[in-house]
Specification:
The complex is a heterodimer of chains A (500) and B (301).
Chain A: E1 4-6, E2 11-13, E3 19-20, H1 22-33, E4 38-47, E5 51-60, E6 65-74, E7 78-79, H2 90-100, E8 103-104, E9 139-144, E10 156-162, E11 165-172, H3 180-186, H4 190-198, H5 205-220, H6 226-254, H7 258-279, H8 299-323, H9 327-333, H10 341-347, H11 351-356, H12 363-366, H13 372-375, H14 387-414, E12 431-438, E13 443-450, E14 456-462, H15 465-475, H16 484-491, H17 495-499
Parallel strand pairs in A: 3-6, 7-8
Antiparallel strand pairs in A: 1-6, 2-12, 4-5, 5-6, 9-10, 10-11, 12-13, 13-14
Chain B: H1 2-25, H2 35-44, H3 56-73, H4 90-111, H5 115-146, H6 151-156, H7 163-183, H8 202-205, H9 211-237, H10 242-266, H11 275-296
Helix pairs in contact in B: 1-9, 1-10, 2-9, 3-4, 3-9, 4-5, 5-7, 5-11, 7-9, 7-11, 9-10
The chains are: A alpha+beta (500), B mainly alpha (301).
Amino acid sequence: MKALSVKNGACVALIDIPLLSYDDFYAEIVEALSDINLHCVNYFAYPQSDSLRLYACLADDAQGDIHILSCEVKKEAQLPAISAKVHAMERFERELNENHGLRFLDHPWMKPVRYAHDRADKTQVMDNYPFYSIKGENLHEVGVGPIHAGIIEPGHFRFICDGEKVLHLEIHLGYQHRDVEKLMLQKDKLIQRSLLAESTAGDTAVGHGTAFAMLWESLCGVEVSKRTQLERTLAAEIERIAIHTGDLSALCGDVAYQLGNAVFGRLRTPIINFMQEWCGNRLGKGCIRPGHSPYVFTPALADRLQVVLQAYERDYLEMIAKTLTMPSVLARFERTGVLSREQAVEIGAVGMAARASELARDIRSSHPYLAYPLLHHESITRRHGDVYSRTQIRRYEIVQSMTYARQLAQQLKNMPLEDNARPEMKPQANCFSIMLTEGWRGEICHCAITDAEGKLACYKIKDPSFHNWMALALAVRGNEISDFPICNKSFNLSYCGHDL
Amino acid sequence: MLSLLLILIAACFFDGIIIRTKSICAGRKGPGILQPIYDVWRLWHKASVYSPTCGWVFRWAPIVYCASVLAAISVIPFGQQPALFSFDGDFVFFAYILALGKLFSILGALDTGSSFEGMGASREALFSMLAEPAFFLIIGSVALLTGHTSFHDIFAHLHLGDPVSYALATLAAFILLMVAMIENSRLPIDDPKTHLELTMIHEVMILDNSGFDLGLILSSGYLKFAMYTALIVNFFVGGLGLEWGIPLFFSIQFAAAVIIGVVESFMARLRMNHNPQFIFALTSIALMVIFGVLLLSGQLS
């Protein structure tokens, strides 16, 4: 393959990345992605003075490599679409079209992604979003949002229903767009960039924060201590426990199972309160910073975590066993919102949602980083791809994360505290760096390119929601519209993570 | 007159007790018993807001709905005490005056033009239509047993003697409680607590109602609960004097509210397409009651 193969978190000189013609680039990607072990983790454009440099990063889950290849195309060029052959690429190409005006000739469904502020075609506005429509006497359309009845974020859902049955769901996003990627370049203080990264998706502060921190360290050639690595891993696992528990609560709430809703809601609180004790923020904001560890995980905190987890575990195990053996709950979860393995592969689903459909995509085991090589993580998968499978993934991942958190806390307790000096951090010039982390929702990919002076010239973020919104749209087909909320909650995707 | 008064009093506490039971089951303190009434009182002092797309049906629907419930209550007796008015066949009047109120609330929902409310209206129409046979089978069987066709005559002549008739009355009470839960959009058919428009039935129909209108709709819901439970009380109150009858009335009202609260705490709601099965099951239990009555009265040999 004409590509540069690197490991997760590598920093390479721009010049080392093979520059292909678009035809070769196209052929290489189509061929590579025919292998089920490979999927595209990022595909974006780095604008040059009069052309665009396209970078594609393909992760090989079997080998643990990331293949990077590039090509140069003219602005506004007309190109054959990779997504005509590989459907998983469709949203990347739509994004390229929206942001840079590249025209893809045989793209299956070209439409806006998120209405970026600096989009190429300013005539594309939210008011005339090209919704798909079906004509029929007995069909009706239901539009939900963007103002949401609950407390979650804005997004518009357009259902086409035959009675109660959903034939088609179209998800129109972009309301949360803040231009994080541009702000990353404009704000030149490290603290500003760290804050931006962890605010990319508010519920994945540790996941995105870690991706940025490690990316920056890799650009600067700095290596953090073993202790800091363990702390970051621990924070990620605590975040996973907390959010999964909150999701279980919400899933119970959506089927009106009050006991589960109340108990899981209560169980989440001590976990996030522990994060507050550790780093002063319940969502773990501020916990991860490039180059050092601002909040030391002291032996006292380690003891405290063991106590918190012990109290949590007892109630959690009882409640989850009760919930998932209750016939009325199972009747709602089983065979609802099925995402088949074929569909998951076709759309390039990642993370928890993919694992529930027997597609074991997990950066912690395929491209291990931080302390995951030591933990020998084995990802949990389920076969059916329904709401029940996604609930079970959460059920067992919480147990797994508790084991990891205990191990890590014990190791940290036995490690000497260290001088927490911040190293000098200066990015290398003309470099490309990529970092993948596994947030609770799935794989997070951050890529950065520096210019000749070592300044950040391009920054690209990809949240797992970028792929998985399509999974939700497919999963609700053929279901009853009244089951949409539990399907949605079982994926629990991020609006702002997608909209950036 | 007495029954109307008792039902009004019971209605003030009914929803509060359900909410309190649910709170206690969830390990929470919960609001005061009278909170729903405070809320209704607050709403009654607010003006309603109307969307420019809706017409007179939407404005009148809450009033007709509330009036229909009050009219239905007025034919319910209390043991030997007569109802406000009574005539032969008034149980048919009872069922269809409620249906008229429901018709108006459905039309009002359709009048808003919202796709949510249309969905809710279609569900509400379907499920209350399915619940109708169960109600008529139960009242029909007691009419058959006593040979009368007005609520007052039926209950004045209903004397439960042997254990079999108590068993049948208990079954009838169960069915009426379930019908009350369906009619009031509670679990397992509907979830009154949800914020998810797509899963709602009754709640989604009243999304556009506000202020005074919303207060009317909510208070009619509380009245309906107390009304159905008053029917249940009538199965058991029989020839009891007022000194026993009134405590029994409030005990049964209290018990019904607690049962509903407990059911809502410890089970999930049904999937929408399983609702008809659940309601048909009620109808089949009602058929058992009517066969039991036929056997008792010797008309089936």
